[in-house]
Structure formats: C-alpha cells, structure tokens
C-alpha cells in the first residue's frame, strides 16, 4: 500500500511538470505571436489552454483522492496540499498566456502596438517567457536558489510594467485608442504572469523547508493576482 502511495505522489509531481511545460510553451508561443503577428501560433496557444485545464482537473482529483484515502501527514501532506495550490497557479499562468495570444490574434495582421510601447511589451513578454522556463526547472529540481531568483527577478517585470504606463500617459505617443487599451491589458497580463511565478517559487520553498512564512506570502501573492 505504501509503495502505491509513493507512486501516486510521484505522479502528482510529474503531472505538475507536464502542466508547467505546456504553460511555458504557451507563453513562449504567445510572445512570438505578439512580436511577429503570427496568427497560427496565437491560435495554437488558445487551443492548447484546454489541455492545461484538463491536467489541472486531473491533478486536483488525484490530490483530493489521496487526502481522502491516505490521510497523509507531515511532508506527504505538504506535497499533496502544495500540488493543489500549484495546479491552480499554473492554470492561471496558462490563462494569461492565452490572453496574450487573444490580443495578438485580435489585431492580426497588424501588431498590438507600435514604437516605444511595442518595445516595452516585447521586453515584458520575453521576461515572462523566461519565468515560464524557470518555473518548469523549479518544479523539476526544487532548487531553492532558483526559487529565490524567480522572486528577486520579478522586479524586472514590475519595472517594465511601470514603464508601460509612462508610455501610455505620454502625450507624444501616437497610439490609437485600441492600441492604448492593448498596452494596458497586455502589461497587466504579463506582470500578473510574473506574480504567479513568484507564487510558485514561494510554494516550492514551503514544500522544501516547511517554512510557513513562504506559504503565507504565496497565498497573498495569489490573492492579489485574482481576477487578473
């Protein structure tokens, strides 16, 4: 019975990595679609989001079943509860990648913005794609150094997000009304993507160390990102 439980715990981890890999691929493709106005890539991201949702449902069902059947304690309990939290966060990151792709598709064959606004958005998208890749590696390795790096580098997206507002408020910008809306929305999507990456990092830190401070911080990050 214990061997079966161990295998089920391991499967939770593998499914989380698979979910993260698809999320990471999604934000990478969405970034390229935003940069090149690639309609095919944008639609691939939108279609693939359904698969991420399916994995989340599977993970949640597995975790609830383990809680009911095995009544895990200590480290095992942390693993199962963390899987439930992570699946929700990764699903939201997948949604945000889809939102970026939605904007890219909606502006096809044109780009979502131009000039300085476009430059800032592409920098944000590139940084978000980096967060996606780092998140996959973190789930594979549980490397606390990487978790700390994800959290500290979130300032890059925050700074670029502030810059995007400066561009929007610049009277000399030649953005159309639609482009202004797109810049504001895309900036929010990409900044929130980074916030969710921080939430993943903090939850992994809690999983490894059992330090509740990280768990509370992760919950606060997730709460402030709701509705994004």
Automatic annotation (TrEMBL):
Pfam name, any one: PhoU
Family assignment from sequence similarity: Belongs to the PhoU family.
Keywords assigned by UniProt, alphabetized: Cytoplasm, Phosphate transport, Transport
InterPro entries per UniProt: PhoU, PhoU-like_sf, PhoU_dom
Origin: domain of life: Bacteria
Claim: Cytoplasm is one of the keywords in the record: yes
Assembly mode: Homodimer.
NCBIfam families: phoU_full (TIGR02135)
Protein name: Phosphate-specific transport system accessory protein PhoU
Localisation per UniProt entry: Cytoplasm
Organism listed in the record: Georgenia alba
Coiled-coil regions listed in the entry: none
Known function: Plays a role in the regulation of phosphate uptake.
Domain PhoU, first and last residues per copy: 17-102, 121-204
């Amino acid at each position: 019975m214990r061997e079966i439980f161990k295998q089920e715990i391991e499967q939770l981890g593998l499914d989380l990595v698979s979910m993260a890999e698809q999320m990471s691929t999604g934000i990478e493709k969405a970034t390229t679609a935003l940069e090149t106005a690639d309609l095919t890539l944008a639609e691939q991201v939108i279609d693939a989001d359904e698969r991420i949702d399916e994995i989340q449902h599977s993970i949640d069902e597995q975790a609830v079943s383990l809680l009911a059947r095995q009544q895990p304690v200590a480290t095992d309990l942390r693993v199962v509860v963390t899987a439930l939290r992570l699946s929700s966060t990764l699903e939201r990151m997948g949604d945000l990648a889809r939102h970026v792709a939605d904007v890219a598709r909606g502006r096809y064959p044109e780009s979502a913005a131009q000039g300085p606004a476009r430059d800032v958005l592409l920098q944000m998208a590139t940084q978000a794609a980096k967060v996606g890749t780092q998140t996959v590696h973190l789930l594979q390795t549980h490397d606390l150094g990487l978790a700390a790096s994800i959290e500290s580098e979130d300032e890059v997206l925050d700074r670029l997000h502030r810059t995007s507002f400066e561009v929007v408020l610049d009277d000399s910008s030649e953005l159309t009304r639609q482009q202004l809306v797109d810049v504001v929305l895309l900036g929010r999507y990409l900044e929130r993507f980074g916030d969710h990456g921080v939430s993943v990092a903090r939850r992994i830190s809690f999983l490894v160390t059992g330090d509740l401070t990280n768990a509370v911080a992760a919950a606060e990050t997730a709460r402030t990102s709701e509705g994004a």
